[in-house]
Amino acid sequence: MGIFLCNLAKLVSPRDPAAAAPLAREALSILSAVQPPGRRAAEVESVLGEALAGLGRLAEAEPLLVDGYRQLAAAQGEGRRHARAALERPVALYGALHREDQAAPLRALLQQGAGRSPQEPATADPALRPAVAPHLPN
Fold first, then answer.
1. Is the entire prediction scored with pTM above 0.85?
2. How far is it, in rounded angstroms, from Cα 31 to Cα 12?
3. d(Cα 19, Cα 16) in Å, to the nearest integer?
4. What's the CA gap between 83 and 118, in Å, rounded?
5. Distance, CA of 40 to CA of 127 (rounded, Å)
6. Are 74 and 35 in contact (CB under 8 A)?
7. Cβ-Cβ contacts under 8 Å for 105 (sequence gap 6 or more)
8. Percent of the chain residues past pLDDT 90, beyond the cut
9. DSSP class of residue 37?
10. 39-91 pLDDT, tens per residue?
């Protein structure tokens, strides 16, 4: 049920964040009750962050977006489909907030992985990692 709600929230979030936020919260609650933290919970955090950003609740959204991406990247590798989608969300948030100092390195990370298959890691170049790390809040 949690996975279904997560997928539904992902579909709804870009068009109706007010409907997506409770779906994502419920999915996170269900997943947290039945399994240890992992890829699915991180994905739901990212989707919840996207919904909250869409509602203008940016202070709540930012840590969910950043943490969701970090967890997915650690679990899957940064080039995987879910991790890339999770990275696109803070890029969009920082772009909308005109925080180019934070958006630019993340956008570069996305562009670096654009030519790769979904299974390949996006950050084979270790030189990019130090440039990205300071721009993700702790």
1. no
2. 19
3. 6
4. 10
5. 29
6. no
7. 128, 131, 132, 135
8. 29
9. S
10. 888 889 999 999 999 999 999 999 999 999 888 888 766 557 788 888 899 99
